[in-house]
Amino acid sequence: SHTVVSPQDPVMYIGSSLTATCTLNPEFGLHASTLYWTLNGMRLPSSTYGVVSSEILSVSLHNLNGSQQQSGDNLVCHGADGHVLGGSCLYVGMPPEKPVNLTCWSRNTKDLSCRWRPGGPGETHIRTKYALKYKLRWYGKEKECENYSSGKQRHSCYIPRNLALFTPYEIWVEATNQLGSATSDITTLDILDVVTTDPPANVQVSRVGDLDDQLIVRWASPPELKDILFQAKYQIRYRLEDSTEWKVVDDVSNQTSCRLAGLQPGTVYFVQVRCNPVGIYGSRKAGIWSDWSHPTAASTPSSERLQSGSCDPKPSEQNSTLRRELKQFFGWVRKHAYGCSGMSIKLYDQWRVWLQKSHRTRNQILQDDNS
Question: pLDDT by residue (tens digit) across 272-282?
């Protein structure tokens, strides 16, 4: 009653050749020489056809490329009027190579996420199934992860719960398609060594009195880690409102506040903080950096000195002196102290108070003279 195309849904290596046939039911009263073939909707040249008999038309394809669609390429036999008589799906690809770059991380010790890359380009042409498997190293039963997602050339899986701490896991990925299978190297890891946290919560940035070149950043340690014995390393980055370049402050150690100095007066800054849990339950390794917190914006006060009024005989000269002094001070601070350490800030404040006093006194005298 119907037309038969054979072979049906063959699976072949890239570079293979194929001869397919379209066999008509004699009751149709059609002749094979009136038929034509298409591949993915494109008509194949009649030079590739062979009329085997009045009921059979063949087509020969050489040096096949990988399938353009993972659901298989459509090889279709048509009647003279374009009517579809029958078809077959061609699966052309390569067997998988062993998956690579398997890395895993745990958010707040509660779960585990892993990602990997395909070992070669061949398996992208035909559907390749990945299975992430894991077991406790010495006495575990093999389990399989269930929540998969895939992006461009990258695959991942999420294990939401029921993970053991203090015992290493063996984790690996098996890749399978219609042409073969391959297994990644086994990764051995302890959940406690791959912990990352949520970003620090409640990041606030505020001014330091009327100091025009400083902001203070405060944040809360990630709430999910309250019940875990750990220390944290924090990192801050900040940028000018109209810049894309971030400056990173690395040495915040485990404080939950930090003062940024040497900023531009009257300028909006965006600030972000991230956390790295260290020594969870006595693990020797540092964890994995969290994502950055949402950017928080704040502006430094405008500098009155830099826009000082007409009473000052040479504002530009005072301005450049001030900048020079600042430069000298920061040079000194860099030699003697680091980023967020308290020492430099205390000294800096004393120095600034003195500087502001001396300027105020000088301006006062000038104003008294002029009045």
Answer: 999 888 766 66
